[in-house]
Each structure stands twice: as C-alpha cells, then as structure tokens.
Amino acid sequence: MDRHAAQTFIDELWMDSIVPELVEYIKIPNKSPHFDASWAENGYMEAAVQQITTWCKAQNVKGMSLEIVRLEGRTPLIFMEIAARGDADPDDTILLYGHLDKQPEMTGWAEGLGPWKPVIKDDKLYGRGGADDGYSAFSSLAAIMAVQRQGLGHARCVVLIEGCEESGSYDLPHYIEHLSERIGRPSLVVCLDSGAGNYEQLWLTVSLRGMAAGTLRVDVLSEGVHSGYASGIVPSSFRILRQLLSRLEDEDTGRVRPDSLYADIPGQRLHQITKMAETLGDEVWRAYPFLEGVQPMGGDNVERLLNRTWRPALSYTGIGGIPELDSAGNVLRPHTSVKLSMRLPATVDGEAATEAIKQTLEADPPDGAVVHFDPDHPASGWNAPDIAPWLQTSLQGSSREIFGRDAMYMGEGGTIPFMAMLGDYFPEAQFVITGVLGPQSNAHGPNEFLHIPYARKLTVCVARVIADHNRRGDA
Questions:
Q1: CA 316 → CA 239, 362, 391, distances in Å?
Q2: What domains can be seen in the chain, in order of their start residue?
Q3: What tens digit of pLDDT does each residue of 398-457 get?
Q4: Which of 48, 121, 304, 328 is deepest in the core (most CB within 10 A)?
Q5: pTM to 2 decimals?
Q6: Calpha distance 421→261 (Å, rounded)
Q7: Residues 457/418, Cβ–Cβ less than 8 Å
C-alpha cells in the first residue's frame, strides 16, 4: 500500500466529509436504551441510524450493499457488506464493528461545551459520542475505500454498527444469530471502540475487563419518619448500606474482597503492562484530572495498570433515596440505594460474578433490613488470542510508517461485550481492537473529545491491515 496516497485520501475525506458528519451526529441525544427507556418513541436512535446510513450510501465503495436490520422490540442494526475484490478468497471475511448509541449527558462540562454541542478546538472535536463510538462507521468505510482506490485486493468485509453497546449489547446476540449466515466466519475482526495510551503511536487492546453491575437497595421503613423521633430506634438504611458494601470492598484500601472476583494474570500480559508503564511513565496517572493533593492508588505505575486492567475494582455511579441538600429535612429516610459497577478481570465470567455479588450482599441482612440487589445484564471480559505473525508485522509496520514509533499492546479497563461474544463464536479469528480514546478524551464523562489527527492516522493503519490481510499468505 502507498501510505502517502492513503493518508492524503483519508485526511481529505475526514476533513471535508467525516468531521462535518460527526458534528451533526453529536447533536443527536441518542442515549442508549438503558438510559432512555423511550428511545423508540423519542426517535433519536432512528435519527442517528438514518444520518450514518445516508452518508455511507453516498460513498464510492465498490461492491457495497447496506441494510438497516430490525428485530421486533430491539434497537436497529446497520449491516453493510462489501464484496471481496482482486484475488481475495470470496469466502473469507473481515468483520468491522462499532456502535452509535451514547452514554448520558453527565455533569461538569467546561464553559462553552456540552454533550450535544459539538465544538472543534485545538484539533479536538468535543461532544458526546464522537469518539465513543460515532466515528467507527465513517472510519471503517474510509479505510476500505483507501484500499480500493489503490486497486488493491481485500477480503469480503462486513460492517456491523449496533445501537445497544452502552447498555451491555443485550440486543446483539439476537442479531448475530439472525445474521449468522450473512456474517460468515471472519478470519479478522476490527473493532474501533477502544483506547490509546497516547496519541503518538498505534495502540492495540489485548484484554478487556468484564462488568457486573446493578442496584443495591436497603429498606427499613414504609415511609420517612422524623429523625428526632426515630433515630436510635430505627436502624439507618445508609449505615446498613455501608456495612454491606464493606463485604465487597475494603474501605481503607479500595481492594475488592471476594476472592472469586480475581483471576490469574497471564505472563504475557504482565510483560506488556510493564512495557506500557515504561513507555508512559507517570502519564499513567497524570492523564486524569486529579484535584491538587489527591494521590493515585497503587504503589507504582505497573501496579496501577494492573489495577485498571487485570484486577476487580468497584465504582459507585449513582445513588437513590437521598434528597438534594436544599430539600433535605430532618427525616430518617425509609431506604437508600446505590448503583454499583464492578469491573472484572478479563477471564472472570460475568454471570457467575454477578450471582456471587448478589449472594454476598443479600445474605444475613444487618438488623433484619430488607436488602435487594437488582443486577444489570452482566458482561464477561475478553483476552486476545496470540497475534499471528502477519498481523504482528502489519501492525508494527503501519505504526512505524505512520507514527514513527512501534505499536504498543495494552489492557483496557472498559468493557466491549461484543468482543467476548465474538471470541466464543469465532475462536480462530484474529483481532484488531483499537480506538481513539486516549488521555483526557474522557468517554462517558464531561468534555469527551475525539482527537482528529489521531483518528485520521488510525484510519490509515486500519487500511494497511485490511490490505495486508489479503497478502498474509505471503508473510
């Protein structure tokens, strides 16, 4: 592949067409079904689907067909198929994946920024969903077009863009089953929904954590009671909640207590994490917006990366039953609930972990309180298979040519449920899991941005891998 020609084409397409499309895409408040129960009635999902499909259909992609697939009661899925070209095996398949649903607004956006307000500043496109993961459909087709423009062969490509990823991809297995014959058996999977350790080289995700999440609720009364009248007799639902959470987490260190939520860390992953710590140094923790004086957890950067990728970690992402401060009367509240998000090592089964957490929290409730843990859909993590020699050569070659530095391998603390599904469905496939979520890009939080120059270079890397995939027998 002529790297310079590919970069020129992709840069022009990004700046002239893709960035303007992403600006419009960010304006659509297409929250994932978990955060918008009326997604179908509100129409934002459909607006995002129509916007992306309109752009895709307008591109000069030879041999492409596109369909919006709809299953009753489920979020729609965009299915694109691009026929093999050149001397490629027509039965071989590259599967490219992304999603178009978004996380909710979140508070704390900087002045002049907002979740549905696209702003371009310092080569960054701010707004919800541009980096996570609205660019994926555009970037996938741009990479394929770059290969085709040079007259290079490529395998049959299938592009899947789902609408339920931020809710755990619970609709996706139904589509995979429904489309199984049309998908085929991919030998290569490309996913553009992951992260990067910096914006200076190609980063490949080789492991993803799973997640066991849900809402823990503690009830002690049928209604609120004057705190002066009831305190000292009626147990505090908040105190009981704290006791229960101590079963999961050491409040002094943050260490998760149940041994069943841990896994052995493979030696190869430990080596890669050590290399990542050497490359990034203190940027491992300086990438976060710490307040002055707040110290990062973990004894050193290797430990911090292990904590983020191969050890369980508990976050509290929401709380219920507690009024805002300006409406907090002297009332002993009847209940307290908290939203839990337990990240799991890549090889821990999400369903088993969720059941273990439920049993741990609901057993022997203190003071006879009514305790219930309502789990969300669990997600298992993913650990990549060994990288084939041809792919290793392609990844390193593309990173050196485009960035001038070696490709790096990293574990990712987030979850992409689709990867675990594909690992089960297609155990012989090779995986390129990458993305634009680098330092300060802040997916799911305020001030999320897409680093435009990095996204353009990453698209060229994907094009190189697609072209090299067709020549892998020559490696």
A1: 16, 18, 39
A2: 3-208+381-474 (3.40.630.10), 210-275+303-375 (3.30.70.360)
A3: 999 999 999 999 999 988 887 888 888 888 999 999 999 999 999 999 999 999 999 999
A4: 48
A5: 0.87
A6: 20
A7: no
